[in-house]
Amino acid sequence: MSTAILLGTARNGGNTHQLAHHIADRASAQVFDLADYIICPYDYSHNNSGDDFLPLMREVLRFDNIVLASPIYWYSPSSAMKVFLDRWSDLLTIEKGLGRQLRQKSGAVIATGANAVLTPCFEEIFQLTYNYLGMQYKGILYCACEEDILHPQHLLHSFAMDDFVRKLHAG
Ligand SMILES: Cc1cc2nc3c(=O)[nH]c(=O)nc-3n(C[C@H](O)[C@H](O)[C@H](O)COP(=O)(O)O)c2cc1C
Predict the structure, then answer these.
(1) Fewer CB near the last or first residue (10 Å), C or N of the chain?
(2) Tell me, what's the pLDDT at 87?
(3) Can you give the pTM of this predicted structure?
(4) Which CATH class, in words, describes the domain spanning 3-169?
């Protein structure tokens, strides 16, 4: 199973960036950093359809697993990730063919936050979105970053990481 990780964070080289790349190394996944693309906010008139969103999605749809990686900012995905997710509505309107392809894909989430325990509403946003689009949901890998730092021990093999990578490889 091939895996694309879409990274949306306000901090290049920060906690989510490090975790996403660590999982990419372990799962032989490809990381797409949303900061490298011009993705405009959702527009009902689709005047933004010439930006990077559709070409990026065409590339991402070559993979079996689509993993969205975001820090938790105020119990929510980062603004880059939210703008990206809003644009998935284009796949239900002007690019329905691409939207239908999502039904054969699996989704998962990588997240970092300061809280010791993951806030459930954060995961629900992704889980409900994947369900709505007919995608299989493979779960979330959450890394609690005390004092705002991703400690090296977080990147050691852990049961949660092993389990997450195993789920990505599984059909
Ligand atoms: C604007 C902002 C809001 C945040 N809100 C939360 C939050 O609601 N819950 C939480 O656990 N951590 C919160 N944090 C902490 C970040 O999620 C945490 O430091 C994360 O690892 C940062 O990842 P990054 O380096 O990719 O930005 C917040 C941080 C910022 C900058």
Answers:
(1) C
(2) 98
(3) 0.96
(4) alpha beta
